[in-house]
Design goal:
The chain is mainly α and 285 residues long. The protein has helices at residues 3-10, 12-46, 48-73, 83-112, 115-120, 126-147, 161-187, 192-208, 221-229, 233-244, 259-281, and strands at 251-252, 255-256. It has a two-stranded antiparallel ribbon.
Length: 285
């Protein structure tokens, strides 16, 4: 009989109390994640201007830039699809990128208005607060991206229900990684203006080096290396392949990367960023 078993046998009430306490903490933390997620979704629904502006930029890219750059790039660079069709998955990823970054700014606002301090002194784990923010922000980003699906038939893009579900899952992974990264930045930023400057400097290169706007084939060596080092590249490519097929699929070392491996890479990056965010919030109080 181990020491733990002997102790439980001698003091059963103490063992039961500890088990009840653990279940209580778990339930409290899960409730915290749920409440923060709900708060983020309510905040999105109440911000109609954000929804409108979040849709305006991707639609401009799709219908204005798509037509203009399509004349320059031509169909020979993108076998089997028009440039607008090629651009559509990139526009979805762009919407998720900017929506995810914007959702992370709520942490800076909460800090300025004192709400974050109230959450941090609550009897819940810091991990549950960060996880709630990450899931809520990712849900916001995917919700805004999904709205763009209604314009897909206008440019000749069609998806089966299974392809739509796969696309949503991949977008959620990408949004989770982006929001987790944004939370890391927000945890070290005291002012909204500073966060906006940092995010602008980070988001633009991530977008243009991800393959969202132009094909990644036949690039100069230095640009080829940068695109493979960009985490967002591994989020854009699987979304495009689910929608348009494997033509122009991302390669690494001459080998086409499986979609599942790209998903694992994005999930790994998101998990690492989330763990770092929890660690940084552990120093705040």
């Amino acid at each position: 009989m181990t020491q733990h078993t002997a102790t439980s046998a001698i003091h059963p009430a103490a063992g039961d109390a500890a088990a009840v306490g653990q279940r209580s903490r778990l339930a409290r933390n899960l409730l915290t994640v749920s409440m923060i997620w709900r708060r983020e979704m309510i905040r999105l629904l109440r911000s109609r201007a954000r929804i409108v502006t979040g849709l305006a930029q991707p639609i401009i890219y799709l219908f204005v830039m798509g037509v203009g750059l399509g004349q320059v790039i031509g169909s020979d660079r993108i076998p089997g699809v028009s440039y607008q069709e090629f651009l559509f998955p990139g526009v979805l990823a762009m919407s998720v990128l900017f929506s995810g970054m914007f959702s992370a700014i709520s942490i800076v606002w909460d800090r300025e208005f004192g709400f974050l301090k109230e959450m941090l002194v609550a009897p819940v784990s810091r991990a549950s607060i960060v996880l709630g923010k990450a899931i809520g922000g990712a849900s916001q980003a995917v919700a805004q991206g999904v709205i763009l699906v209604v314009v897909a038939p206008l440019i000749g893009v069609t998806m089966s229900p299974l392809e739509l579900l796969a696309m949503l899952a991949l977008l959620m992974l990408l949004a989770f990684a982006i929001v987790s990264f944004g939370i890391v930045i927000a945890s070290r930023t005291q002012r909204v203006e500073g966060f906006q400057v940092v995010m602008t400097l980070v988001a633009q290169p991530m977008l243009f080096l991800s393959g969202a706007i132009f094909p990644l084939q036949d690039l100069p060596t230095w640009l080829h290396v940068l695109t493979r080092l960009n985490p967002m590249t591994y989020g854009v490519d699987p979304v495009r392949r689910v929608i348009l097929g494997d033509a122009g699929a991302l390669t690494l070392g001459g080998e086409v990367l499986p979609i599942w491996l790209e998903a694992v890479i994005v999930l790994g990056i998101g998990t690492a960023m989330l763990a770092l965010a929890v660690r940084l919030f552990g120093r705040e109080g």
